[in-house]
Amino acid sequence: MPSDWVCDECEQENTGDDAECVACENPRPTASPYAGYKVARVVGVEAIPKTKLRAVKVQVDDATELTIVTNARVDAGEERHIVVATIGSTVTIDGEEVEVKKATVGGRKSEGMLVDAPMLGWKGGAAGAAVFLPNTFAIGSEPPASRP
């Protein structure tokens, strides 16, 4: 069942079943398919000994850095921007929606997931290959709807 919502136009509270505001008939806003996805800057990569995993440290806004443990190939380069799914967001893996949760992977704390092209619905790009963006995309912003 959809959750209740508040109209952006008139601030009327509406039920989850309302497709438009009961007061002003403004349509219910649609949720972004990229809710919780952020453009992040790679600030460091550390190989985890005796595994094929890497701990990737990313900056998702001016004050927040996250560590994401992955088996994806990531190199720390000057101003490399990458797309991450933060805790609480939903990704689609093999046609199944999965909520991103804080986890321990390879003995390390992981605070999100690197996003690949299929998770974004982009054409081209392999599953499991992290999406990199030009550094013109602002850190903390949502990723674009298509490959730049």
Automatic annotation (TrEMBL):
Residue ranges the record marks as coiled coil: none
Alphabetized UniProt keyword annotations: Metal-binding, RNA-binding, tRNA-binding, Zinc, Zinc-finger
InterPro entries in the cross-refs: NA-bd_OB-fold (IPR012340), tRNA-bd_dom (IPR002547), Znf_RanBP2 (IPR001876), Znf_RanBP2_sf (IPR036443)
Domain RanBP2-type span(s) in chain numbering: 1-30
Gene Ontology MF term list: tRNA binding; zinc ion binding
Location of the TRNA-binding domain: 31-144
The protein, known as: RanBP2-type domain-containing protein
Organism: Saprolegnia parasitica (strain CBS 223.65)
